[in-house]
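hey so u asked for the seq, here:
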Amino acid sequence: SWHLLGSSCTVPPLRHRYGIRYEGGHATVPGNVTGRARSCHADRGARPGEGGCMAELRIALLGPPRVERDGAPIEVDTRKAIALLAYLAMHPERHGRDAVAGLLWPDYDTEHARGALRRTLSTLNKAVGPGWLAADRTTVGFARTSFWLDVAEFEGLLAGRRDHGHPPEDACPACVAPLAAAAGLHRGDFL
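ran it, C-alpha coordinates below
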Protein backbone atom coordinates (compact mmCIF):
# COMPACT_ATOMS: atom_id res chain seq x y z
CA SER A 1 0.00 0.00 0.00
CA TRP A 2 1.04 3.62 -0.39
CA HIS A 3 0.84 6.59 1.93
CA LEU A 4 -0.12 10.03 0.64
CA LEU A 5 1.97 12.78 2.15
CA GLY A 6 2.34 10.97 5.43
CA SER A 7 -1.43 10.65 5.95
CA SER A 8 -3.15 7.48 7.06
CA CYS A 9 -4.91 7.14 3.68
CA THR A 10 -3.89 3.87 2.07
CA VAL A 11 -4.89 2.13 -1.17
CA PRO A 12 -3.84 -1.33 -2.31
CA PRO A 13 -1.56 -1.39 -5.34
CA LEU A 14 -3.81 -1.17 -8.40
CA ARG A 15 -2.06 -3.82 -10.43
CA HIS A 16 -2.81 -6.51 -7.82
CA ARG A 17 -6.34 -5.44 -6.98
CA TYR A 18 -7.60 -5.26 -10.56
CA GLY A 19 -5.43 -7.82 -12.35
CA ILE A 20 -3.45 -5.16 -14.19
CA ARG A 21 0.12 -6.11 -14.92
CA TYR A 22 2.83 -3.47 -15.23
CA GLU A 23 5.72 -4.81 -17.26
CA GLY A 24 8.35 -3.06 -19.31
CA GLY A 25 6.83 0.37 -18.74
CA HIS A 26 3.36 -0.63 -20.02
CA ALA A 27 0.19 -1.61 -18.19
CA THR A 28 -1.81 -4.52 -19.54
CA VAL A 29 -5.01 -6.34 -18.65
CA PRO A 30 -5.62 -10.04 -19.18
CA GLY A 31 -5.21 -10.76 -22.89
CA ASN A 32 -2.69 -7.89 -23.31
CA VAL A 33 -5.40 -5.38 -24.30
CA THR A 34 -4.45 -1.74 -23.91
CA GLY A 35 -6.49 1.41 -24.28
CA ARG A 36 -6.48 5.19 -24.17
CA ALA A 37 -8.02 7.61 -21.74
CA ARG A 38 -11.00 9.58 -22.92
CA SER A 39 -10.69 13.33 -22.95
CA CYS A 40 -12.72 15.46 -20.61
CA HIS A 41 -12.19 18.57 -22.70
CA ALA A 42 -15.82 18.53 -23.87
CA ASP A 43 -17.23 19.23 -20.40
CA ARG A 44 -15.40 22.52 -19.95
CA GLY A 45 -17.41 25.69 -20.03
CA ALA A 46 -16.70 29.30 -20.79
CA ARG A 47 -15.85 31.63 -17.94
CA PRO A 48 -18.24 34.49 -17.41
CA GLY A 49 -17.06 37.49 -19.37
CA GLU A 50 -14.68 35.44 -21.52
CA GLY A 51 -15.28 34.18 -25.01
CA GLY A 52 -13.43 30.85 -24.89
CA CYS A 53 -13.12 27.70 -22.88
CA MET A 54 -11.44 27.53 -19.52
CA ALA A 55 -7.97 26.04 -19.48
CA GLU A 56 -7.93 22.27 -19.23
CA LEU A 57 -6.04 20.92 -16.23
CA ARG A 58 -4.96 17.27 -16.32
CA ILE A 59 -3.35 15.63 -13.31
CA ALA A 60 -1.81 12.16 -13.67
CA LEU A 61 -0.69 10.46 -10.46
CA LEU A 62 -0.58 6.82 -11.56
CA GLY A 63 3.16 6.59 -12.13
CA PRO A 64 5.48 9.59 -12.00
CA PRO A 65 3.34 12.70 -11.38
CA ARG A 66 2.49 14.64 -14.53
CA VAL A 67 0.47 17.86 -14.69
CA GLU A 68 -0.62 19.56 -17.91
CA ARG A 69 -2.51 22.75 -18.67
CA ASP A 70 -4.03 22.81 -22.15
CA GLY A 71 -1.74 19.95 -23.19
CA ALA A 72 1.50 21.64 -22.08
CA PRO A 73 3.45 20.21 -19.13
CA ILE A 74 3.51 22.37 -16.03
CA GLU A 75 6.90 22.95 -14.48
CA VAL A 76 7.25 23.76 -10.79
CA ASP A 77 10.46 24.20 -8.86
CA THR A 78 9.74 21.93 -5.90
CA ARG A 79 8.40 18.46 -5.22
CA LYS A 80 6.32 19.97 -2.42
CA ALA A 81 4.28 21.87 -5.02
CA ILE A 82 3.45 18.60 -6.80
CA ALA A 83 2.75 16.92 -3.45
CA LEU A 84 0.39 19.76 -2.51
CA LEU A 85 -1.40 19.56 -5.86
CA ALA A 86 -1.71 15.77 -5.53
CA TYR A 87 -3.11 16.05 -2.02
CA LEU A 88 -5.66 18.69 -3.02
CA ALA A 89 -6.68 16.74 -6.14
CA MET A 90 -7.20 13.50 -4.20
CA HIS A 91 -9.09 15.35 -1.45
CA PRO A 92 -10.82 18.26 -3.25
CA GLU A 93 -12.63 19.62 -0.19
CA ARG A 94 -11.25 22.71 1.55
CA HIS A 95 -8.48 22.11 4.11
CA GLY A 96 -7.22 24.21 6.99
CA ARG A 97 -3.96 25.96 6.14
CA ASP A 98 -2.36 24.89 9.42
CA ALA A 99 -3.23 21.23 8.79
CA VAL A 100 -1.80 21.30 5.24
CA ALA A 101 1.30 23.20 6.37
CA GLY A 102 1.86 20.69 9.17
CA LEU A 103 1.39 17.79 6.77
CA LEU A 104 3.94 19.07 4.23
CA TRP A 105 6.42 20.71 6.62
CA PRO A 106 6.20 18.70 9.85
CA ASP A 107 9.67 19.78 11.02
CA TYR A 108 8.91 23.52 10.74
CA ASP A 109 7.34 25.64 13.43
CA THR A 110 3.85 26.94 12.58
CA GLU A 111 5.00 30.34 11.32
CA HIS A 112 7.64 28.93 8.97
CA ALA A 113 5.36 26.12 7.77
CA ARG A 114 2.63 28.64 6.91
CA GLY A 115 5.19 30.78 5.07
CA ALA A 116 6.40 27.78 3.08
CA LEU A 117 2.79 26.91 2.24
CA ARG A 118 2.11 30.49 1.12
CA ARG A 119 5.13 30.47 -1.20
CA THR A 120 4.28 27.01 -2.57
CA LEU A 121 0.67 28.05 -3.21
CA SER A 122 1.89 31.13 -5.07
CA THR A 123 4.20 29.04 -7.24
CA LEU A 124 1.50 26.45 -7.87
CA ASN A 125 -1.16 29.04 -8.65
CA LYS A 126 1.10 30.65 -11.26
CA ALA A 127 1.82 27.24 -12.80
CA VAL A 128 -1.78 25.98 -13.07
CA GLY A 129 -3.24 29.36 -13.98
CA PRO A 130 -5.92 31.54 -12.46
CA GLY A 131 -9.13 30.14 -11.07
CA TRP A 132 -8.04 26.61 -10.19
CA LEU A 133 -6.91 27.02 -6.59
CA ALA A 134 -8.75 28.83 -3.84
CA ALA A 135 -7.03 30.00 -0.70
CA ASP A 136 -8.06 32.39 2.02
CA ARG A 137 -6.58 33.20 5.42
CA THR A 138 -7.67 29.88 6.94
CA THR A 139 -8.32 27.34 4.15
CA VAL A 140 -6.93 26.05 0.87
CA GLY A 141 -8.35 23.80 -1.82
CA PHE A 142 -9.46 23.61 -5.43
CA ALA A 143 -11.79 26.41 -6.52
CA ARG A 144 -13.45 24.03 -8.98
CA THR A 145 -13.31 20.31 -9.54
CA SER A 146 -13.55 20.17 -13.32
CA PHE A 147 -9.92 19.07 -13.62
CA TRP A 148 -9.18 15.62 -15.03
CA LEU A 149 -7.57 13.20 -12.59
CA ASP A 150 -6.30 9.84 -13.82
CA VAL A 151 -7.01 8.16 -10.47
CA ALA A 152 -10.69 9.20 -10.62
CA GLU A 153 -10.94 8.12 -14.26
CA PHE A 154 -9.29 4.79 -13.43
CA GLU A 155 -11.62 4.13 -10.51
CA GLY A 156 -14.66 5.14 -12.59
CA LEU A 157 -13.73 2.72 -15.36
CA LEU A 158 -13.33 -0.11 -12.88
CA ALA A 159 -16.49 0.72 -10.95
CA GLY A 160 -18.63 0.05 -14.02
CA ARG A 161 -17.43 -3.52 -14.32
CA ARG A 162 -18.08 -4.42 -10.68
CA ASP A 163 -21.81 -4.82 -11.42
CA HIS A 164 -21.31 -7.57 -14.01
CA GLY A 165 -21.91 -10.38 -11.52
CA HIS A 166 -18.61 -12.23 -11.90
CA PRO A 167 -15.44 -12.37 -9.80
CA PRO A 168 -13.08 -9.39 -10.29
CA GLU A 169 -10.34 -11.58 -11.76
CA ASP A 170 -12.67 -12.74 -14.59
CA ALA A 171 -13.40 -10.49 -17.54
CA CYS A 172 -16.55 -10.75 -19.65
CA PRO A 173 -16.71 -9.18 -23.16
CA ALA A 174 -18.31 -6.02 -21.68
CA CYS A 175 -15.35 -5.65 -19.29
CA VAL A 176 -12.68 -5.50 -21.99
CA ALA A 177 -13.14 -1.87 -23.10
CA PRO A 178 -13.14 -0.35 -19.58
CA LEU A 179 -10.21 -2.55 -18.53
CA ALA A 180 -8.30 -1.55 -21.65
CA ALA A 181 -8.93 2.13 -20.96
CA ALA A 182 -7.89 1.68 -17.30
CA ALA A 183 -4.71 -0.11 -18.40
CA GLY A 184 -3.92 2.82 -20.69
CA LEU A 185 -4.06 5.17 -17.71
CA HIS A 186 -1.91 3.01 -15.46
CA ARG A 187 1.71 4.14 -15.98
CA GLY A 188 2.86 2.73 -12.64
CA ASP A 189 2.02 2.77 -8.94
CA PHE A 190 0.45 5.88 -7.39
CA LEU A 191 3.04 8.67 -7.29
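The chain is about 35% helix and 15% strand. The longest helix spans residues 110-128.
lmk if thats what u needed
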